[in-house]
Amino acid sequence: MTIRSSTSATRRALRNLGLLGLCLGGPAQAATPFFLDVATSPKGSTASDMFRDIGQVCTGASFLRQRQTSGSVESLDLLLGNQVSLAFVQLDVLKARDQIDKDPRARELKTLLPLNFDEIHLIARQPTIKKNIFSRTTVSGVLKFSDLKGKKLGAWGGSVISANVLKAKSAVGVTVLEYKGREEALAALGAGQVDAVLSVVGQPADWVKALDPARFALRPVDIDPARLNGFYRPATLRYAQLGSGVGTYAVQRILVTRDFKTPERRAALLNYQKCALSKLTQLQETQGFHPKWTEVSFKEQDWPWFK
């Protein structure tokens, strides 16, 4: 009887200690899984697709949850406002926040993965062609970026930053109008409220391919490369119906994160980084993954690493 009584008392004491440990957060407390939100841009975007692809080859990525945004500006705002923990951001948007806006929080962010270069798509309506009584042909419309002088250019998200940077670098006196999203900007273009729209997106973009070639065309960004020294590099747009071989520029997109100090978060992010870096060939060769993976080297970038 004494032995059974002691055993029961011991069990009660252990249960009480266990409950006390749970209340105090001691060793008896079960580990609680954590999640980090990642701002990726809209569904169907390069960033959204690449996030999906990495998650398929890196099984340890389940602690990351996608949050779709309108683009780099919103994604960066959410990251700096501690509403997400990682974000896919255009490098020019990040640099503008640091160098133009002088936001000290930008310098605290780190590159987890340097990714692809997204091309600048300049889209205009098809030109109007007229002949006068002397059979002379006149063409009105935007045929290249420099034709935007004195005209209106629509953009949204991070592309607004890119449009203003190109405006400043080229000295072309264009008025940049900001729209909430792609549909609104394209509607304004179709209605003649703007003369062109500019979008920074990795080609081939499905929504660009879906544009009506009878109404719209891609136009070259004819800015002297010497004026764009830095993080823009020459590129070529290849859309058969809208204009193949159109000269433009591209800017890199990077996955940035807060510089976490807690060991469990650092370890999880470093493992995710290590996995992605080691699986580049698989990301490039898996059927159905975004074609932009073939251009990724994980080498180009101009922002401090998370390490």
From TrEMBL:
Gene3D superfamilies (alphabetical): Periplasmic binding protein-like II (3.40.190.10)
Signal peptide: 1-30
Keyword hit for Nucleotide-binding: no
Signal as UniProt keyword: yes
Keywords from the named record: Signal
Protein name: TRAP transporter substrate-binding protein
